[in-house]
């Protein structure tokens, strides 16, 4: 006949008793009164000690205090006329308070609230929630309003997770890349170095094995990432990845465009252009992708008059966004 092993139960009781003791001392430290608690008080008020004999209680309490101290809980032990006293040194137990200037809190607030429709917005929103819980607040009064149509709200978290896992494990990856919506996806092979956020667009950076050179890919156009069993052969460069991305984007397509921007709206676009006598705004040598994305974010108030191709791309982007919302 099998015998019952009581060890797991004793282990659970010990863990519960340690937890109760830790919370009791922490509560005393935060009560605003005396942080000290006598051994007799612990015996009467902390579950797990009251049913023990005097000798068993003394041994159990001493053992539990030592266990918590080894685990990093700063419990201070002192003697007094009415017996031993214990208290939690809260100054050594808590992290320093998180403090942000109004400007920093505003930036974090915008980052957390920039997208509430999916994609990476869940990550940023949860981060702001934790920071706000520490006492930070955001003051958006007087802040310019910028578009929330960006990669953060549209990019699937699985893309970033797959890339970062490959970077961490130094593995080669393959993926499908679509240069623009009108082209067919092409498989690429890369030794990934990381992901970079620039102007609310996420870029995959690494060494393109087929091209035999460092390359930058818009993560939103990447899909079907597969991690290879082959190790990455090209280590991360000493150059900052942000600098590498910015240099690559400088070689991107720049265009001129003419827009209609209602008064008091789309400051982001207005600041990038020049007001014309006829009321339109002329933009010189701006990034094509940025213009399409930003103009779509301010539609229908903002209208792209020319070039006609950019106007059509804005319409296509809006249609895709509408379809995604309907499917969701």
Automatic annotation (TrEMBL):
Which superkingdom is the protein from? Bacteria
All copies of domain WYL, residue ranges: 158-226
Cross-referenced Pfam families: WCX, WYL
Q: Where is the WCX domain?
A: 254-321
Note the InterPro entries from the entry: CBASS_pafABC_assoc_protein, WCX_dom, WYL_dom
Q: Cross-referenced PANTHER family, in alphabetical order? A: PROTEIN PAFB, PTHR34580
Q: What is this protein called?
A: Uncharacterized protein
Q: Which organism is it from?
A: Corynebacterium pseudogenitalium ATCC 33035
């Amino acid at each position: 006949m099998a015998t019952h092993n009581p060890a797991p139960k004793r282990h659970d009781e010990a863990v519960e008793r340690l937890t109760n003791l830790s919370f009791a001392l922490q509560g005393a430290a935060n009560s605003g009164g005396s942080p000290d608690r006598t051994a007799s008080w612990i015996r009467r008020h902390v579950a797990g000690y009251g049913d023990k004999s005097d000798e068993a209680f003394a041994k159990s309490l001493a053992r539990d205090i030592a266990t918590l101290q080894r685990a990093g809980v700063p419990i201070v032990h002192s003697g007094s006329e009415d017996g031993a006293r214990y208290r939690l040194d809260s100054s050594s137990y808590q992290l320093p308070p998180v403090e942000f200037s109004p400007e920093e809190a505003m930036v974090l607030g915008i980052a957390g609230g920039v997208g509430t429709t999916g994609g990476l917005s869940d990550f940023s929103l949860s981060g702001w929630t934790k920071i706000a819980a520490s006492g930070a607040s955001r003051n958006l009064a007087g802040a310019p309003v910028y578009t929330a149509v960006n990669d953060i709200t549209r990019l699937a978290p699985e893309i970033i997770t797959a890339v970062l896992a490959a970077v961490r494990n130094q593995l080669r990856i393959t993926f499908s890349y679509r240069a623009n919506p009108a082209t067919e996806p092409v498989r690429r092979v890369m030794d990934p170095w990381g992901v970079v956020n620039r102007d609310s667009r996420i870029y995959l950076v690494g060494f393109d094995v087929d091209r035999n050179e460092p390359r930058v890919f818009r993560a939103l156009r990447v899909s079907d990432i597969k991690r290879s069993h082959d190790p990455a052969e090209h280590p991360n460069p000493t150059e900052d990845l942000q600098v590498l991305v910015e240099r690559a984007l400088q070689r991107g397509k720049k265009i001129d465009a003419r827009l209609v921007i209602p008064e008091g709206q789309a400051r982001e676009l207005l600041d990038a252009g020049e007001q014309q006598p006829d009321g339109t705004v002329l933009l010189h040598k701006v990034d094509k992708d940025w213009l399409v994305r930003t103009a779509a974010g301010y539609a229908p108030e903002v209208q792209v008059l020319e070039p006609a191709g950019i106007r059509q791309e804005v319409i296509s982007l809006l249609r895709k966004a509408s379809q995604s919302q309907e499917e969701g």
